[in-house]
Amino acid sequence: MSQPGDYDAVRKDIVAQLKKPDYDDGSAGPVFVRLAWHSAGTYDAKSDTGGSNGAGMRYEAEGGDPANAGLQVARAFLEPVKERHPWITYSDLWTLAGAVAVKEMGGPDVKWLPGRTDFVDDSKVPPRGRLPDAAQGADHLRHIFYRMGFNDQEIVALSGAHNLGRGHKDRSGFDGPWVNNPTRFSNQYFRLLLNLDWKPRTLSNGVKQFNYSDPDAAEDEKEEPLMMLPTDVSLLSDNSFLPWVKKYAEDKELFFQHFADVFAKLLELGIRRDDKGSVVNTDNVRGGYVS
Length: 291
Ligand code: HEM
Prior knowledge:
By secondary structure, the chain is mainly alpha-helical.
């Protein structure tokens, strides 16, 4: 048990949870990033509801949303960290795990601040249906991300998180990784999105995605085909998104800077702080620290 407020000790224990030889591509990092994003991506700026405050995914109303399928795995991986540091709230732990995972997989430092509180019941859990639907296109992305307060450049930068991890048939129905090394944060997603010949494919479960297989690879050396979601491919046919795809494909440093900024912004949605950085909106929630 660490001292309350010792976030460096928590960071170390999150790092210790990342290596998972028997899971996916050997790392819990990608699913931690997705957990952090889905905890925050319910934010609605107009009503000032949703967002990472509250950790509503602990309740069926939010945790059982089909959009969150598979994230119980990430929460279970983080439970030993919560047990060792019971003073941290789940909402802080899940967002911190996303930031730590990005950094550990070779990505930028993402600014993260503590102070989120956890809901005491499910009465303030945001309604389902606020997270994006990967089967749709550019208009839908704008509808979802403008609602949170993001612009077109930020939508493209955020999409670059698909450098990490994979689609799972038993979670979203999509299948496969976006890049060859899905546990290494880079701008490869943008380079592959622009430069490969993505072919539409309907999977046996009826899900439509895009695939690429290297036609020159010898039969016995064929790697798992790479995948893009319809929303990923929609970035290419939009006059406002495409220039950012090109910029991030060319300039890894620019992408890293912009991703660090936009991911930090995502994790802060709906959280109001005083000039000392303390969170002031804690209505109907309580801190996880009970003295
Ligand atoms: C995985 C959709 C944006 C991070 C996925 C999956 C889907 C999806 C369908 C596969 C889930 C599974 O089967 O396990 C979308 C759509 C987005 C979006 C439609 C709209 C732009 C984001 C953002 C982030 C993110 C903003 C983070 C900043 C991830 C990560 C994974 C993932 C890291 C891999 C998870 C794993 O390997 O377990 N996303 N996503 N996504 N997404 Fe997104």
